Amino acid sequence: MKELQTIGDFIRWGASQFNQANLFFGHGTDNAVDEATTLVVYALHLPQELPDILWHSKLTYPEKQKIIEFFNIRIAKNIPSPYITKEAWFTNLSFYVNQHVLIPRSPIAELIEQRFEPWMDYSNSIKMLDLCTGSGCIAIASSILAFPNTVIDATDISYDALDVAKKNVSTYGLEQKINLIQSNLFSNLGNKLYNLIVSNPPYVDVEELKNMPLEYTHEPKIGLAAGTDGLFFVEQILRHATKHLTSDGILIVEVGLSQTNLIKRYPDVPFTWLKFQRGGEGVFLLTYEQLCHLNQVEV
Ligand SMILES: C[S@@+](CC[C@H](N)C(=O)[O-])C[C@H]1O[C@@H](n2cnc3c(N)ncnc32)[C@H](O)[C@@H]1O
I need a surface site. Which of 42, 85, 167, 211 has the fewest CB within 10 A? Predict the structure, then answer.
């Protein structure tokens, strides 16, 4: 280990080890160098955006030991680095995460940054629901970046996930702006109506679940698994959303690779599949009217 002296040495070495171990990246970073950087700066209590000058800083023996410990955990257990650092980034905001919540990575981040334009009309005050909130990332980012003057409801079935969301809500001081509600989809929402319902529900089908890289096995299965065709939750959302949407309301749902199965299941529904500049797909938008039509056809 004597050859490794500087921060740069350890980032390079870690990246080489990760590539050699064929790790999967996709939970916050998409390559070995960024993944190694994340763990090195975390071990050293330094900012994620490491100033160039520090790449050549020499490390003490205990610092080297700490970095190696994190690298070993990453490699031996295939744990995505946000579960080691307990931090994930979404819309450039930091979120506490643990293994009760999925690591935030939804392309819906872009819609939030664009304040859901051109889909939302700001002449009226917005009522928003984040269904299946997990870490609370969609509700919190929407509150900060899109709708600072409104109260957002955020639901999840998992009390453990809601504990994480509560911690994040408190970090951003949004206790008055975000209502966390334990609910099996819409079941505990009474007759509440929203102009905007956004959801990133579980949508992974059995086959995809079996073939996912080991890193995903550290995420809560309750956040991923959605039956044989991945549509278990989205079908329920499509069936019940009209009861909770205003007549000018819209529903935005992420379904990932289950997009194909969804189109097969509802061949006549005019889903608007949203486009993202930073990549990602499988997010649809339907209006209240389209949902009413879908349900009439279904009956
Ligand atoms: C794909 S994760 C999304 C989390 C978060 N919105 C995000 O984008 O990172 C899905 C979430 O749905 C929750 N969930 C699973 N079944 C549910 C149900 N029946 N009702 C409400 N939430 C559910 C899980 O606990 C998990 O937090």
Answer: 211
**Residue 298 has what pLDDT?**
47
Q: Which residue has the tokens 């002449």?
A: 123
User: Is residue 137 in contact with ligand 1, taking CB distance under 6 Å?
Assistant: yes
Nearest to 141 by CA among 103, 97, 89, 181: 89
Looking at the chain, which residues constitute the CATH 1.10.8 domain(s)? 7-85
pLDDT of residue 124: 67
**pTM score:** 0.95
- Non-local (6+) Cβ contacts of 207 within 8 A are none
**CATH top-level class of 91-298:** alpha beta
- What span, in angstroms and rounded, lies between the C-alpha atoms of 84 and 6? 22
Query: Residue 123: which pLDDT band, with cuts at 50, 70 and 90?
Result: low
Average pLDDT over residues 49-73: 96
Is the CB of 91 within 6 Å of ligand 1? no
Dump strand ranges (E) for the chain: 87-90, 93-96, 128-131, 152-156, 178-182, 194-199, 245-254, 272-273, 283-287
In the chain, residues under CATH classification 3.40.50.150 are 91-298
Average model confidence (pLDDT) across the chain:
95
What percentage of the chain carries pLDDT values higher than 90?
A: 94
pLDDT at 299 > cutoff 70? no
Q: How far apart are CA 268 and CA 51, in angstroms?
A: 53
Report the nearest-CA residue for atom 7 of ligand 1.
104
7-85 has which CATH code? Answer: 1.10.8
